[in-house]
Amino acid sequence: MLSPDVLENAGRILVLQNTADTFHFENHYTPFVAHVEESGAAWKVRTHEFTHPGGHRHGENRDAFRTAEAFWESTGDTAA
Question: What is the DSSP letter of 76?
């Protein structure tokens, strides 16, 4: 699991998860979200769940990409 020091010192984090990727959703994403919520640092982490056929091998859909793009733009980071 994520070290408490890493989460404490991290900036804002975006996690995109395809719910059709059931292995990663159940074994990695769900425990991670629970850990973040228990740590008191949930305000640092934004999650976006989406469903895209094909699971892990087919990547993100357009909506997930737009969410990531909007998150990046909201950070004020202009470095590409």
Answer: T
Residue 13: CA count within 13 A, CB half-sphere: 15
Q: Which residue has the tokens 């059931």?
A: 22
pLDDT tens for 3-49 read 777 778 888 888 999 999 999 999 999 999 999 999 888 899 999 99
Which DSSP string do the residues of 10-56 spell out, in sequence order?
A: ---EEEEEETT-HHHIIIIIHHHHHHHHHHT-GGGEEEEEE--TTGG
Give the amino acid at 80. Answer: A
Tokens of 6: 């890493």
Q: How many residues does the chain have?
A: 80
The neighbour count for residue 45, using CB atoms within 10 Å, is 19
